[in-house]
Amino acid sequence: MNTKCLIIGSGPAGYTAAIYASRANLSPLLIEGPQPGGQLTTTSTVENFPGYPDGVDGNQMMADLRTQALRFGAEMRTGLVKSVDFSQRPFTVTVSGIDEDVKADSVIICTGAAARYLGLPDEQKYMGMGVSACAVCDGFFYRKKRVAVVGGGDTACEEALYLASIAERVFMIVRKDHLRASKVMQQRVLENPKITVLFNTNTVGLFGDEVLQGAHLVEYRGTDREQHIDIEIDGFFLAIGHQPNSAIFAPFVDTDAQGFIKVRPHSQATSVEGVFAAGDVCDPVFQQAIVAAGSGCRAALEAERFLLNAE
Ligand code: NDP
Description:
alpha/beta, seven-stranded mixed sheet, 29% strand
């Protein structure tokens, strides 16, 4: 199977790249992973994407982007990329669900990022039995129950507010003495009577039998002073940032210490000529849908230019 432009990933970056690449007559092939639409399909209302004064449902927005890419002729296939070989052109990519290798003259990597976990052994033990990294996906199970959200960024605030509309009580476990989130989100959290923010606090363990029943916390109260607290909770939600889905590409393209794919200044070009990256997989700073979409556009325009020059 041959394509001029292979787009891997189906978040705002991937679909936008597909829209631009289709309109440039590159007939792109887009590989949608197991979660078509990416992280935005696990969020509730997207309030900050320009053009939607009343906000837009994340799933709806991604469905609209997909429809738009299909309208211009992008081909979509579902599968997981199993291996890549970027050592020579055309590049070779093997995808589960596609019997033959995909040979691509250019590649745009838009595989996004995945939720980070604290690394506690108990997280694995209670995964799906109280531990989650997606309030919108799993919040329903905690109606009138007690839950905790770890993190102090915008995601944590968003998750806490969402859970507060369902659960009886929400703890926010914040390791510093302040929230990192935007002021508007901070205000909404601090004013919500159902949310208790535990500052200077870390989670050191979880407890329960078959299902989660609580968390062991440590609150730091100045140098050498710490207080151990146990809270009874039914749900424990991680919102401590994301790690880029770049491992499979790392043997070929340069990545930074955290695994984000490095792109050249003012460009989406990676260290391999003809391979571009867009969206959260190469963005350690902004991680916004609008930025991802913009970088997908840039990557497609650069791929078009690359292919023209390579002819
Ligand atoms: P952030 O990196 O902004 O925040 C991560 C939070 O997790 C921080 O409070 C951090 O603490 C905490 N944290 C990290 N590691 C640990 C740990 N090991 N133990 C305890 N706490 C930890 O990630 P987000 O996912 O919140 O946001 C990513 C980007 O997406 C940001 O740019 C954000 O603004 C944006 N975003 C915007 C939204 C919106 O505008 N509606 C919604 C969601 C995200 P510390 O502060 O101490 O480092």
